Amino acid sequence: MNKNLTALILAGGKAQRMGGLDKGQQLYKGRPLVEHVLGVTKSLVDSVVISTNQNFDFYSALADDVIEDVDPWISIGPLAGLYALVHEYTDLRGHVLLLPCDTPCISKEALMALISSTESNESKVSCLKTESGWQPLHAVIPVEKLQIHLPEYLEHAQHYGVMGFYHHLGCLPINWSNQTELLNINRLDEL
Ligand SMILES: Nc1nc2c(ncn2[C@@H]2O[C@H](COP(=O)(O)OP(=O)(O)OP(=O)(O)O)[C@@H](O)[C@H]2O)c(=O)[nH]1
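^ thats the input. predicted complex w/ guanosine-5'-triphosphate below
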């Protein structure tokens, strides 16, 4: 298994479609959304960091560390979480497994496919791709690429979309046929 693999679970953002509630804490099948993702992730990685902007006690009890978006890239979307990670951990090495807190059905097999792709592809981003397209919040990213390229990319970016950044770095699709695992919860009536 990949050495130096840090999971970054994104639980920040505004959750506007959920009325501003803390998405990660909302119950899906009786458990907080974030716990579903943690459950399949923990045994695959060396450490877990959760990116959030609220309820730090709740998240701290689940992860090795909790980070907040940092200036000047606060609440610009998922790239803010990645920026905060490399800003906070300047000596981080290896790869980051990026995950959102709001896909509770993601499987260990899908994450293992992403992780094992780094054995033959050390330097590109590996990103899940289903028949409906790229799944940019399910990706493995070399830390060094983030450290070198993300600050400058954000300075010059017209948009803060994650996929644009991956294409800038070079991105390998990891095709995944089980679309239902990517079920994405954005509204209360989807819980
Ligand atoms: N750290 C961080 N995470 C974010 C940010 N925006 C979104 N996320 C996370 O990225 C994932 C996808 O988020 P979206 O569904 O696009 O946005 P959201 O803020 O959760 O919800 P909406 O406001 O309804 O679009 C979720 O896991 C969010 O927690 C951000 O600005 N900073």
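The helical segments are 33-41, 56-60, 78-88, 108-116, 143-156, 162-169.
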